[in-house]
Design goal:
By secondary structure, the chain is an alpha/beta fold. It contains 14 helices and eleven strands. The model is unreliable at 1-36 (pLDDT under 50).
C-alpha cells in the first residue's frame, strides 16, 4: 500500500496535535454509544461494557498520548498497585498486576503445570484458564453445573483427589451468569485440603445484586490459599486497554508476577487509576446494565424461554432450537452478533447487555424470531 504526501502530512499533524486538543476531542465524544451504523452488526457477544471507558479514564489516556514513546516506569506500576491495595484493604505485596485478568489466568495455568498438578473446574465455565492449562500439559477435570446452572460445589468437592492442586471458580460464572454466595465459597474453601489453591475469578462481581453474593477477597486476608482475580474489562469498560489484577497471599502474588510475560501498558495503568475514582460513571453503568438485564429477563419470561439467574452483564437463555439456527437468524436477518455455543448447552445463547437502544433492537428481533408482537415496547 502506498501513502500519499497528504496522508503523511495528515498523520504527522495528528502526532503533533497538543495533548490539550486531543483531550478536548476525547471528552467531546458521545459518552453513550448508539446502535451500530447501517451495514455494521450490533455486537452482543463479547460481554463488553458499551458505556466505557469513563470520562476520567478517557482523559487519562488522552493526557498520556504524548508519553507513548516512553516505557512505563516503576512509578506507574507502584501507583496502580498501591491504589488497588488500598481499595482491597491489603498490603501492596498481596497485589499482582496483569495485562487483563486473562494473563493472570494463563500464569495460573503455567503454575499448575510447574507443580505437576491437576485442575478442577465447572462445565461450562470461562475457558481461558482450563484451555491454557491443558495446552501446558495439565489434566483438567470438569464437573457439570447443577440443574440451576450453578457450580455444584458438593460434586466438585467429591471430585477432589490428591492430584488436584487448584480449583477454578468463576463467580459469577461465564457463560451461565449464575453466582455463589460468599458463605458458600468460604465453606467450600474450608473443606479443601490445605495444599489446594482456590482461584476465584470475579470479573463480573460489580454487576451482582443477589443476597450474599460479594467478593471473597477477605479469604486472602485470613490466610487461605485463595487468589481473587478482578479486571478493568467489564464495569470499567476497558476491555481493549487490558488491565487486571489479583489479590493473593504474598508468596503466590510474587510467584505469579514472575510467570507473567508482560506488564500493563502506560495507558492501562493511568486509565485504571483514574477510573477507580470515577464513582458516578461506574454507578451509572451498573444502573443502566441492571435495568436492561431486568428488561431482558421480563421479555424472556413473557416468551416462555428458560434462562439462568443472571448476575453478570449478560443473560444465558434457552432458544429451544440449535444455537446455530438462532445465531444465523440474528446475524443475517437482524444484524446482531450473539454468543457462541457452550457445550453441552447446544440450544442456549449468551446475550451481552448492550446500550438501551441495542437492547431494544435485540428484544424486537427476539419477538420477530418467535413470530410474536412485543407488547411492552
Amino acid at each position: 500500500m502506498e501513502l500519499s504526501r497528504r496522508h503523511l502530512l495528515g498523520g504527522s499533524a495528528l502526532l503533533l496535535t497538543p495533548a490539550r486538543a486531543l483531550l478536548s476531542s476525547a471528552l467531546a465524544s458521545e459518552p453513550v454509544p448508539t446502535p451500530a451504523a447501517a451495514g455494521k452488526p450490533i455486537i452482543l457477544c463479547w460481554n463488553e461494557n458499551p458505556y466505557g471507558p469513563s470520562p476520567a479514564a478517557r482523559a487519562a489516556i488522552a493526557q498520556t498520548i504524548g508519553h507513548a514513546c516512553r516505557y512505563p516506569d516503576d512509578a506507574d506500576l507502584e501507583r496502580l498497585g498501591t491504589r488497588l491495595a488500598q481499595r482491597e484493604g491489603v498490603s501492596r505485596d498481596h497485589i499482582v498486576l496483569g495485562t487483563g485478568s486473562g494473563e493472570l489466568l494463563r500464569a495460573l495455568g503455567l503454575r499448575c503445570a510447574r507443580v505437576s498438578g491437576e485442575l478442577l473446574a465447572a462445565e461450562p465455565t470461562y475457558g481461558e484458564l482450563p484451555e491454557y492449562a491443558r495446552e501446558s500439559g495439565v489434566t483438567v477435570r470438569f464437573v457439570p453445573v447443577d440443574a440451576m446452572l450453578r457450580h455444584d460445589l458438593a460434586a466438585m468437592h467429591a471430585a477432589v483427589t490428591p492430584r488436584i492442586r487448584a480449583v477454578y471458580l468463576c463467580n459469577p460464572n461465564n457463560p451461565t451468569g449464575t453466582a455463589l454466595t460468599a458463605r458458600e465459597i468460604g465453606a467450600f474453601v474450608d473443606a479443601l485440603p490445605q495444599d489446594v489453591l482456590t482461584i476465584v475469578d470475579e470479573a463480573y462481581m460489580d454487576f451482582t445484586d443477589a443476597p450474599g453474593v460479594r467478593s471473597v477477597s477477605e479469604l486472602v486476608k485470613t490466610g487461605k490459599r485463595v487468589i481473587v482475580l478482578r479486571t478493568f474489562s467489564k464495569i470499567h469498560g476497558m476491555a481493549g486497554v487490558r488491565c487486571g489484577y489479583g489479590i493473593a497471599p504474598a508468596d503466590l502474588a510474587s510467584e505469579l508476577a514472575g510467570l507473567c510475560m508482560t506488564s500493563p501498558n502506560i495507558f492501562a495503568m493511568r486509565a485504571a487509576v483514574a477510573s477507580l475514582d470515577d464513582h458516578a460513571f461506574l454507578s451509572d453503568c451498573r444502573r443502566r446494565i441492571l435495568a436492561s438485564r431486568a428488561r431482558i429477563k421480563s421479555e424472556l419470561g413473557e416468551l416462555g424461554l428458560r434462562y439462568a439467574d443472571p448476575q453478570g452483564n449478560f443473560v444465558f437463555f434457552d432458544t429451544g432450537v440449535p444455537l446455530a439456527q438462532f445465531s444465523q437468524y440474528m446475524q443475517r436477518e437482524r444484524g446482531i452478533l450473539v454468543g457462541r455455543r457452550f457445550p453441552p448447552y447446544d440450544t442456549w445463547c449468551r446475550i451481552t447487555i448492550g446500550t438501551e437502544p441495542e437492547v431494544d433492537n435485540f428484544l424486537e428481533s427476539l419477538h420477530a424470531w418467535r413470530g410474536t408482537r412485543r407488547e411492552s415496547a
